[in-house]
Amino acid sequence: MIRWRRRTPRRIVGRVTTASPDNPPPTLSATPTLSLAILACATFSSAASIRVSDPLLPQVAASFGTTAGEASAIVTAFTLAYGLMQIFYGAAGDRMGKVRLIAITTLLAAAGSLACALAPSLLALTVARFATAAVACAIIPLSFAWIGDVIPYARRQPVLARFITGQILGMIFGQVAGGILGDAFGWRWVFGALAIAYVVAGLVLLLHLRFDPLTRLRDSSGVPGLAGLVRSWRDTIGLLRDSWVRVILTAVAAEGFLFFGAFTYVGNELRHRFAIDYTIVGLAMTAYGGGGLVYTAGVGRLVQMLGEAGLARVGGTLLGTGFVVLVLAPALWVSVLAIALCGLGFFMLHNTLQTHGTQMAPKARGAGVAAFATALFLGQSLGVAIAAPIVDHIGATPVFLGAAIGMPLIGFALASSLRRAPHRR
């Protein structure tokens, strides 16, 4: 247990320094449970915002008199901004403090969500979603990066897996709220509820910053101010020179392209195939989060049984199976089981990738995790955009089958590459 004192060789007053190669960040023997719980509340709101559009697509399309493919612009805009802005927040988080920046962007995301609720047109809603993502994108990646700063690698995968419980519950809330609140009150109230969740999480984080010195960790080494940020951004781009970084970024970009490019349209497919209302669509989509919770509940045993390579292989296989079942499902309950299977498989594969994402650049962890998130969300935005005309003119089946083939390939390719990880040699 680290004991923080008022006077030490490096004073800890309003800020705590992490560091350069000569001054490595502290790691804890005990897990900072309270800080993780509060951060999980912020990731809850961000994850809800990411997935809320899935069950809302048919409702937004009906509201503005357009197709699901055209309405998916709100998904593409969100994921595009989410990916593009990572390069800024990764470097800024390393410089000014990850948790401090999370608190600020959480409150800004509340304003963006309120703008979504008041949007008078599809174009305005698309712009508001872009603006919301431009700030909300800092929350989850910087939380992972902060965990990487304070939790040793040997213990990190189980901690990350349990931490994402807040993220999974946020996804479930987004999908349930998108269905039930959307059905009862309209899609605008869904974004209003998100604004409230962001405000609460942001205020609690700001308060917690005053009491836990670990949440004030930041890199105060090197060039200060804007010049330091520019150098950090340059270093982020320089990560691509590392072959292992390229492996991880390629894998996560392909994962985002194939999985979310298909999964975004599952709610719309259920709505039209089984003629169900928005409430049932939202409830059915929560099976994805349920599969993720099964993973987090059993992660310790799964890691022991399968190892990282086994998690990647089995996760990819479950994803392939889930999408095949979605294509062939004769009844709604079968589709719900397939969605749960996709949730379990996704988190087995993605958490393995995420763990390595936190270790790609241990001397600039915020920048490394930001690059990881950039690859994921740019892949996702491209996948959703390319799938949109296919879904509108042919249907979702070809998109689902593409994911069914591609996801197992990603899992097996990642498993075979893991032995090359630098920190495992």
From TrEMBL:
Keyword Protein biosynthesis: no
Domain Major facilitator superfamily (MFS) profile, first and last residues per copy: 35-419
Protein name: MFS transporter
GO cellular component, one term: plasma membrane
InterPro entries, alphabetized: MFS, MFS_dom, MFS_Efflux_Transporters, MFS_trans_sf
Gene3D superfamilies assigned to the protein according to its UniProt record, in alphabetical order: MFS general substrate transporter like domains
Primary location: membrane
Entry's localization field: Cell membrane
Species for this entry: Vineibacter terrae
A Pfam family that the UniProt record links to this protein: MFS_1
Molecular-function GO term, any one: transmembrane transporter activity
Keyword annotations of the record: Cell membrane, Membrane, Transmembrane, Transmembrane helix
Positions of transmembrane segments: 71-89, 101-121, 127-147, 159-181, 187-209, 244-266, 278-298, 310-329, 335-353, 365-388, 394-415
Membrane topology recorded in Swiss-Prot or TrEMBL: Multi-pass membrane protein
